[in-house]
Amino acid sequence: MVLELAKPRPIWQIMFSTHHTDVGLLYTIMSIAFFFMGGALALIIRAELFLPGAQIIQDSMTYNRIFTVHGTTLIFLFLLPFASGVGNYFVPIMVRYKDMAYPKLNAVAFWMIPPAGALIWLGFADFTWYATPPYSAIRAPGPAADMWIFAQKILGVSSILGAINFIVTILKCKHPDLPMSKMPLLAWAYLSSSLIIIVAVPTFAAALVMLLTDRLGVTGFFDPARGGDPIAYQHLFWFTFHPEVYVLVIPAIGMMYEIIPRFSRRPIFSQGSGIFAFVMLSIVGFSSWAHHMYSTGMSFTEKTVFMIGTLAAVPASAMHVFNFVATMWGGRIKFATPMMWAVGGIALFFSAGAGGVANSAMPFDFITHDTYWVVGHFHLFVMGTIAFGSIGFLYYMFPYITGRMYNEKLGKLHFVMSMAGTVMVFYTQHVLGLAGMPRRVYDYQPYPEYIIMNQIASIGAMIIGISMAIWLFNMIYSSAKGKEANMDDPFGLGGKYYWSHLAKTPHH
Fold it and tell me: Which of 174, 227, 283, 366 has its CA 20 to 30 A from that of 139?
């Protein structure tokens, strides 16, 4: 047996289960549903920007609402829950324990997410996923902003509960015969990202309380007319959300650590460097938040400190990339669909990181700040690294969970189209940023270079949309009608990969 996983029950039987595989599946299914909802909004945005002037959205307020819900949905309702789903399913197996440490708490953490998603989608706030004051504090109309704030509070509590569960499961429920140094790197990824959540999320929780009391007229923390400072909100926001980027990317890298050695048919090049790099990323994530704020009047010394702090993430990221390449070097690589997604994710991770290194330099940042360069850089990480790693791992999980194989040709078509679309959209946005096009705009000047590049980006987005529809069809059809998988070795790779978590009863 290659993967000794508990066989999940049908969806109608797992809704109120507390078993880790069932909760993991609930997280995964829900996150994919939100992925398609948020992706649909992205296609609307790109359709609107195909040409200057109003195309399908008639006013800037509606555009801002779609923009806000798009970003909020894909970050908080897709990427984070998907990572939680994979962690719930696999971490207990990897540490050789029967379940998560707190199964009921685990289920509670999941069931907090659907009502939060409902608040976000019913409200449709208009202040972007930053909720930047003073606009969000004094002018954002109606109850939508308050619904968004309450949704974020719920999601924050859910994240903290999940993080506590992962930390306790890994540190206290791990099999006594499994030393930390030999623990799978995917489990290390969840330990690192959970520690970041515990430190970072309470800061944003405090910022949201301050923002809400400002909106109620009780305080004036972020309202300049009442002696407040909007820049303080930015510090609180980015202290949470720059490390939050690592909360998203670290599990995706951990998933690649499962795929690449398996499909290279050789062990990971360096277990120790992978562990060290995860620990380093979880630390340096907190040393660079203010590089988002070079243009806010910070002193030269402060900017220098945060520029150096940003560059500190480079060695850790480079260690991961080197580890992947060294593992593949000389391996008998099988480019099945999961491997293609993982390798594509590594390539885009490298290019996105290179853009981030350039953007950390103060002179360059002043040129690219609040331009489409930032949009391209961020989305290369989100789509090109995190989503690629996540989708690749979903293909890898598929036969073990469903007992059936997906259509390999459709899987490869999905990858090729998504890769082409990703390059078309986000590389072009880098060029748009260098040309000076501002981000977060409903309309733009009819300059020929703006029009051409926006059309390329919009066509690329439509290609991604079509590829995702192919993926959805492949998953649904194959789960019911796909060829039965060889559960001992569905990908024909050979060899035993995981320990059985039942190999020895833990003394605890």
Answer: 366
pLDDT of res. 254: 95
Q: Which pLDDT does position 489 carry in this prediction?
A: 85
Residue 447: left (phi > 0), alpha (psi -120 to 50), or beta? Answer: beta
Q: CA-CA distance, 73 to 245, in Å (whole number)?
A: 15
Task: For residue 457, give Cα distances in angstroms to 52, 264, 367, 424, 444.
Answer: 14, 34, 21, 6, 14
Its sign, for the CA torsion 431, 437, 441, 442, is negative
Using an 8 Å Cβ cutoff, are 170 and 80 in contact? no
pLDDT of residue 2: 42
Give the DSSP letter string of 106-142: HHHHHHTHHHHHHHHHHH--SSTTTT-TTHHHHT--T
The pLDDT score that the predictor gives to residue 495 is: 62
What is the structure's pLDDT at 25?
Answer: 92
Reported as type and span, the H/E element at residue 497 is: none
In whole angstroms, what is the distance from residue 45 CA to residue 41 CA?
A: 6
Residue closest to 327 by CA, chosen among 405, 262, 406, 402: 262
Q: How far apart, in whole angstroms, are the C-alpha atoms of residue 72 and residue 121?
A: 10
Task: Kindly list the structural domains of the chain, giving each domain's residue range(s) and its CATH number in brackets, ordered by start.
Answer: 20-247 (1.20.210.10)
Is the Cα dihedral 399, 402, 405, 411 positive or negative?
negative
Rounded Cα gap, residues 186 and 268, in angstroms? 12
Instruction: Report, as ranges of residue numbers, the positions in the chain whose pLDDT lies below 50.
Output: 1-2, 498-508
Phi-psi region of 124 (alpha: psi -120 to 50; beta: other; left: phi over 0): left
End-to-end, the C-alpha distance of the chain in Å comes to 26
Residues 6+ apart with CB under 8 A from 40: none
